[in-house]
Automatic annotation (TrEMBL):
UniProt-recorded Gene Ontology molecular function terms: kinase activity
UniProt keyword Metal-binding present: yes
Coiled coil residues, start to end: 112-139
Compartment(s) where it occurs, according to its Swiss-Prot or TrEMBL record: Cytoplasm
Cross-referenced SMART domains: GAF, HATPase_c
Protein name: Oxygen sensor histidine kinase NreB
Domain (Histidine kinase): residue spans on this chain: 411-608
Amino acid composition bias (Pro residues), ranges on this chain: 1-11
Region described as Disordered: 1-29
Cofactor(s) named in the record: [4Fe-4S] cluster
Superkingdom field: Bacteria
Protein purpose: Member of the two-component regulatory system NreB/NreC involved in the control of dissimilatory nitrate/nitrite reduction in response to oxygen. NreB functions as a direct oxygen sensor histidine kinase which is autophosphorylated, in the absence of oxygen, probably at the conserved histidine residue, and transfers its phosphate group probably to a conserved aspartate residue of NreC. NreB/NreC activates the expression of the nitrate (narGHJI) and nitrite (nir) reductase operons, as well as the putative nitrate transporter gene narT.
Catalysed reactions, semicolon-separated: ATP + protein L-histidine = ADP + protein N-phospho-L-histidine
Length: 608
């Protein structure tokens, strides 16, 4: 059959015979017929030593040389015999043809048989080499499969199970048990009826680098080759376990950074948490963040080293500017490292960039000259991307806070100017009139004083209503339902109204939707206190397929068509703005009112 070259075998723990890896491996499927001459297998049988004839050469010699040689010898012998006396010819023929002929034939055949035996020895050795080669190939395939399965394992438990099964498959053990630090273990059994190792089996225990052990049990005593193979498997298992640990640690680190982004809005605390997580991941001693200001200049926002936190506001050093212009992380160990951190001899800089452009530069420093040569820069770059998103979100939150504060200041100024300030000015005029009439017309003066007192008391109540409307509400602390209960109760007490609350069903809203629902409640009650002149207000919050909020009063009412676009002086939102807020989150908003018949405000929001 045609020769099929065997795949190359690596040197290593599988103990593949070095003389079998080569052309001698050809034809392994047909072990009865040698595919190549014995000398090409790398092993020379005794008959094929240098200077000796191979079997084919011996056959050629006997076939080509012996017949003419026999003719010549017979001719020469017959000539010599013819010269003998007549009585001796018979004995000469008997001696030659009876002894010399058979002897020549015997030694010729024996010479050929020796070559045949040498060929058979070569065949047997080839068969043995082929068997070893096939066993080595099977072990190699099993090891490769084990390495692939270890790479694909999702968690530590999967690694232990895969490693135990692979150890049984590769070594031929009846049982395998793998343990690692932390109390985790995995076990497997091969082709055996025993559910657990017995005393009749032969144990082999191999330590795993980094901690743990691989325990194997065999039907027969393990050979030195098997022990070497088990040690190689233990090394592969150690690498698989370490890879899973690294992946787990990476996920935990990313989760920690993600939690920092979600839970913190203060910029300084946010950068402190993120950079501390990154520094702990690579063992860095110092960390800093430079952010671009409104003019695009990089300035120090947060920094900390072994001496503690560093004051921000400074201009970025040259290395930070180079990192800002780079496409990826940079590492410096020159004098630039000392310009970033005084005690640092190595600094890793990562640009913080998104689709909108450069946000800043993140720096990690250490006193070791090559601290970041082996750092997982790809993971740090991913964490830097999360930090970039966090900075964008924090800046957006700060901007929204500033905008809300500006709007609230404008609202308070408008409210004071349109209400309290004018009323107080009117009260001051009345008191001036009283001062002129107190002697000439005491009765008139007393009436004016009473009117001014009533006006002042009304303005005191108005100021209290404004203060109540400005009071911060902690939805995250108490939740929507408890916050609504507290607010409705306080509202009735502050404004002298009968305020009732009815909550029914299950209410499950996202944090953003909860804020919108509470804002609608707050604005509606403020409008009741400011404009309705009501005696009673009823608040209903019902959770069904949708969450429905109703605020109904028995006050004077109004015409919605005439006030829809106005801005409420109490809450800062008009009816149109409240409708837009609700509808932007997939809800419905409506106001039913008419002069003299009270007002009903209704808002519906989808459940989370």
């Amino acid at each position: 059959m045609p020769d099929a070259p065997a795949p190359p075998l690596p040197d290593g723990p599988l103990n593949t015979p070095r003389h079998a890896a080569g052309p001698a491996a050809a034809g392994a499927d047909d072990l009865s017929v040698p595919a190549l001459p014995a000398e090409e297998s790398g092993t020379l049988p005794p008959a094929d030593l240098p200077g000796a004839f191979r079997l084919s050469d011996r056959v050629k010699v006997v076939r080509n040389v012996l017949p003419p040689l026999i003719v010549l010898v017979v001719g020469a012998v017959e000539f010599l015999i013819s010269l003998l006396p007549g009585g001796q010819e018979l004995w000469a023929h008997l001696l030659f043809y009876g002894l010399v002929g058979p002897a020549v034939t015997y030694f010729s055949v024996e010479w050929i048989a020796e070559g045949t035996r040498a060929r058979e020895r070569a065949e047997r050795e080839l068969r043995d080499l082929y068997g070893q080669l096939r066993a080595s190939h099977a072990q190699l395939g099993a090891v490769q499969a084990l390495m692939r399965d270890l790479t694909d394992a999702a968690d530590m438990g999967a690694v232990l199970d895969v490693a135990a099964r692979g150890a049984v498959r590769v070594t031929g053990a009846t049982h395998a048990t793998l343990t690692v630090p932390g109390g985790l273990s995995g076990s497997a059994r091969g082709e055996t009826l025993l559910s657990a190792p017995s005393a009749a089996l032969f144990p082999l225990r191999v330590s795993i680098p980094g901690g743990g052990a691989l325990a194997l049990h065999f039907d027969s005593p393990p050979t030195p080759d098997t022990e070497s193979l088990a040690q190689a498997l233990a090394a592969e298992v150690a690498r698989g376990v370490e890879a899973v640990r690294q992946r787990t640690l990476d996920l935990m680190t990313l989760y920690s950074v993600d939690q920092s982004i979600r839970a913190e809005r203060n910029m300084r605390r946010l950068l402190s948490r993120i950079t501390r997580t990154m520094a702990d991941r690579v063992g860095a001693e110092a960390r800093a963040v430079f952010l671009t200001d409104q003019d695009g200049v990089l300035r120090l926002e947060y920094a900390q080293d072994r001496q503690g936190e560093v004051r921000g506001g400074g201009i970025a050093p040259p290395f930070a500017l180079r990192v800002a212009q780079a496409d990826g992380p940079l590492i410096t160990t020159a004098d630039d490292a000392g310009e970033v951190f005084p005690d640092a001899r190595s600094v890793l800089g990562i640009p913080m960039r998104d689709d909108e452009g450069l946000v800043g530069v993140l720096m990690l420093g250490d006193a070791r000259p090559s601290a970041f040569d082996d750092a997982r820069v790809s993971l740090l770059a991913l964490m830097s991307g999360q930090a970039t998103l966090a900075v964008r979100n924090a800046r957006a939150y700060l901007y929204s806070e500033e905008l809300a504060i500006s709007d609230e200041r404008a609202r308070i100024a408008r409210e004071i100017h349109d209400g309290v300030a004018q009323s107080l000015a009117f009260a001051a005029l009345k008191l001036d009139v009283v001062a002129r009439q107190v002697h000439s017309d005491p009765a008139r003066a007393e009436h004016e004083v009473r009117a001014a007192t009533t006006l002042l008391r009304e303005q005191i109540r108005e100021v209290r209503r404004s203060i109540f409307a400005l009071r911060p509400i902690d939805l995250e602390r108490y939740g929507l339902l408890e916050t609504v209960r507290r607010y409705v109760l306080d509202f009735g007490e502050q404004n002298g109204l009968r305020a009732t609350l009815d909550i029914s069903g299950d209410v499950h809203l996202s944090p953003g939707d909860e804020a919108v629902v509470f804002r609608i409640l707050q604005e509606s009650l403020n409008n009741v206190a400011k404009h309705a002149r009501a005696q009673e207000v009823r608040v209903t919050l019902h959770g069904g397929s949708r969450v429905t909020l109703r605020v109904q009063d028995d006050g004077a009412g109004f015409d919605p068509e005439q006030v829809t676009g106005r801005v409420s002086s109490a809450g800062g939102l008009g009816l149109l703005q409240m409708r837009e807020r609700v509808e932007a989150r997939g809800g419905l908003y409506r106001v039913l009112s008419s002069p003299g018949h009270g007002t009903l405000v209704e808002a519906e929001m989808p459940q989370a």
